[in-house]
Amino acid sequence: MNRWIGPFATAAVAGLAAHVYTVQAAPAFIMGRAMDAMEQRGVPLHAFSLAPRTTPQTQTVVRPSPDLAYSVCRYDFDQLDGPLTVRMAAWDNYSSVSFFDGETNNFLTVRGDGKAREVVLHGPAPVSSRAHRSPTTKGLILIRRLAPTQADYDRVTGVSASDLCTADPSPAPPPALEPQP
Predict the structure, then answer these.
(1) Mean pLDDT (10-residue bins), the chain, 181 residues
(2) Is the whole model's pTM more than 0.70, yes or no?
């Protein structure tokens, strides 16, 4: 029995180490693959890109909601000198802007509630305690808008042109789009 204690302990330690490594490494690996895939599909860095309406032919992730229109912005603070300004144009139904770090964690979500919203996002370096800060240098920003019909999606296409994800907030903010009847 004593001769099995050494190999069993070694196997247990190796298994535990593999488990911890997998749990720690998997999210960053998954996000890295997602960001690479988005880059391959032409999703720009520091700009929003409206995804095609979700259909069985266009879905690229498992079970995206066909009732939502998605816009995505990739960010990389290694390529920025300052903060990132994110503006979501007003939408007359459900809308939100969500921020995901490089390890798939959702660290901030802001609901639209029919109004335009703006968030200034800073990189991981410490800044004012009131500032919104990304835990990692890279990540994704996702705008979701309820658009269950083709007509709604077509309206999103116009509204999303006023969304902004930029390191240069100097352009005047676009006028807030009022909810349409």
Answers:
(1) 74 70 68 75 83 70 80 93 94 96 92 94 80 91 95 95 84 47 45
(2) yes
Among candidate residues 15, 162, 172, the one with its CA nearest the CA of residue 95: 162
**How many separate domains does the chain show?**
1
Q: Which domain holds residue 90?
A: 49-166
| 13 falls within a domain | no
For residue 57, being part of any structural domain is answered with yes
Per residue in 104-153, pLDDT (tens digit) is 899 999 999 999 999 999 999 877 667 899 999 999 999 999 999 999 99
| Assigned domain for 104 exists | yes
Rounded distance, CA 164 to CA 46, Å?
Answer: 9
Domain CATH for 151? 2.60.40.1610
